[in-house]
Amino acid sequence: MFFDLIKKRRSIRKFKEKMIEEEKIELLKQAMLLTPSSKGRNPWEFILVDQRELLIKLSESKPHGSAFLAHTPLAIVVIANPNRSDVWIEDTSIATTYILLAAEALELGACWIQIRKRKYSDTIDAEEYIKNLLSIPGDRRILSMVGIGYPDENKMPRKEEDLEYNRVFFNQFGNYERISKKETI
Ligand SMILES: Cc1cc2nc3c(=O)[nH]c(=O)nc-3n(C[C@H](O)[C@H](O)[C@H](O)COP(=O)(O)O)c2cc1C
Fold it and tell me: What is the arithmetic mean of pLDDT over 105-131?
């Protein structure tokens, strides 16, 4: 069930040394290609990386937050073609989210790695570093990567009592009370 799935989903950064089956790879591909995009422009492209030497190099994309990829069976690099859409950030963010949820549905663990706006070094952007590594054309952008595999860590599902309901308002900012409770308007 969808609500169990979103409560259970947590960022997983430790993985078993187990390959992801071909059928699950196919379903992950379907999930990313089912992502909605503005005006149906589908400005995304994806590279599935499962070669260890490339995963190790991808794990060095930025000083913090990508190192776990070195021990991860699969990384999906989420690429955008900004010539196809001016809202490619939104479109590729949704695609990344779909990948996270699909992984959870397939009993895999996954974690988003931010690439846009991150640096490989003082002078080189993480995007440039990855583009060089994976022969990605210069006009493309890279939003994120997702590390995926069979989880080797247990994380507690989110609890309802931990949700920050104080961030949700009705009708006016700061108003917590739902006045109109009728089924129809
Ligand atoms: C836009 C975005 C960027 C993120 N970037 C990273 C990252 O670079 N490295 C990392 O290990 N986790 C990253 N995360 C995972 C978050 O740290 C994680 O989702 C957050 O702490 C909440 O934990 P949860 O996913 O277990 O609920 C990112 C998540 C999002 C949504």
Answer: 98
